[in-house]
Amino acid sequence: MASPAEAALTFSLEPNPAPASDATRAAVLANPGFGTHFTDHMVTIDWSEGTGWHDAKVSAYAPIPLDPAAAVLHYAQEIFEGLKAYKQADSSISLFRPDANAERFNQSATRLAMPTLPESLFIEAIEKLVELDKAWIPDAEGASLYLRPFMIATEAFLGVRPAKTYKFILIASPAGNYFKSGAPAVSIWVSDYTRAAPGGTGAAKCGGNYAASLVPQGEALARGHDQVVFLDAAEHKWIEELGGMNLFYVFDDGTILTPALTGTILPGITRRSLIALLREEGLTVNEGRYSLDQWREDATSGKLVETFACGTAAVVTAVGKVAGNDGEFTIGSGGPGQLTEKVKARLVAIQRGQAEDTHGWVRKIA
Ligand code: PLP
Ligand code: COI
User: Fold this and answer.
1) How far, in Å, is the centroid of ligand 2 from the Cα of 49?
2) What are the tens digits of pLDDT across the range 308-361?
3) Which GO terms describe its molecular function (predicted)?
């Protein structure tokens, strides 16, 4: 629950005195890439024990001063989110399920012993930044403004315990295709490393999970693949998820399977949305487990016809090839399957306001 002071928090605005020129911004928007360019402003909100959330501010995008003893730098007390703002055909701007990101942010906060942020503040921060920096939303098909809310422990203290001060920060980055290759289907590498163990932080969106995935992801890239796929920690048998995406399998009898949320994978908002959309189509979507051996066998026999990965950054992306120490196999024709294309089109149409939003997922900003 927000304290009365937090509920009444107002954002101060210190406009960037030297925003990017129209020409600089246009050059960035013509080829945004992913995660390399940032808008003119950011949002910060501080938290301290006793006071709670205070000092909500929209100011120029800039480096932040941080004490070298800040807890985040030593024990990785950090969490983040990822969501997108889209320009609609009528030039209005929309967000997709920001309330779900706020909810997951707070679940991650709780797991990392951090304070929760009232959902209204999380969404207001996003709306304020997107409104102010809306000129940074790319127009190109498939492009959007990627929003990165995160929270760090700022207290200067080297003891291992939850910090007593935190900073919430929101930055925005114009985004194009997440995969550099831009290929219609990606190739993935089955890692010998594990991403998350039962009882660990796999279901939280915390930086530490991603730090631990860099070596496995690097191995995947070095072998010529686009992403790493992780198996479970206990048996090294059951397929969990990719470095930054959830997985779906499509079978020849029309049923669909996605790994169940057992605490070791991230509860993706795209995953949750696709399950709802597929079930509305009358399709059976099971949540369960699927082994690497079964995956290989079913892909070879033709029982498995498609596999796709999904996430905010990658949207819906077909998996065409799977490789590991035991060799590799191709899924379907190696390109995007029919259902993958269909469900991607349906999701994107809702996100971009081209299809009716019957779920109340789309939140218009302006
Ligand atoms: N799994 C991991 C490890 C991720 O980093 C992400 C991306 O956020 C996802 C799954 C997909 O989650 P979402 O659909 O909420 O973006
Ligand atoms: C996202 O899809 O938002 C992610 O966070 C994935 C990756 C960029 C970490």
Assistant:
1) 30
2) 999 998 899 999 999 999 899 999 999 999 999 999 999 999 999 999 999 999
3) branched-chain-amino-acid transaminase activity
| Amino acid 310: pLDDT | 98
Find the range with the poorest average confidence among 37-41, 141-145, 156-160, 256-260.
141-145
* Sequence-distant (≥ 6) Cβ neighbours of residue 77 within 8 angstroms: 71, 112, 113, 114, 152, 153, 162, 163
User: Residue 65 and residue 110: Cα distance in Å, rounded?
Assistant: 25
- Residue of the CA atom closest to atom 6 of ligand 2: 244
CA neighbor of 40 nearest in space, from 67, 13, 65: 13
Burial category of 299 from C-beta neighbours within 10 Å (exposed 0-12, middle 13-18, buried 19 and up): buried
Q: Distance (Å, rounded) from C-alpha 263 to C-alpha 191?
A: 19
In whole angstroms, give the CA distance from residue 307 to residue 27.
Answer: 36
Find the 117 Cα to ligand 2 centroid distance in Å: 20
Residues with CB under 6 A from ligand 1: 82, 241, 244-246, 266, 268-271, 311-312
Question: Residue 360: left (phi > 0), alpha (psi -120 to 50), or beta?
Answer: left
CA 116 to ligand 1 centroid distance, Å: 20
Residue 244 CA to ligand 2 centre (angstroms)? 5
Q: The pTM is what? A: 0.96
Angle (deg, nearest 10), helices 269-280 and 338-351: 110
Task: State which ligand 2 atom lies nearest to the alpha carbon of 205.
Answer: 5
Domains within the chain, CATH numbers bracketed: 4-175 (3.30.470.10), 185-351 (3.20.10.10)
How far apart are the C-alpha atoms of 238 and 220, rounded to whole Å? 19
Is the model's pLDDT at 299 over the cut of 80? yes
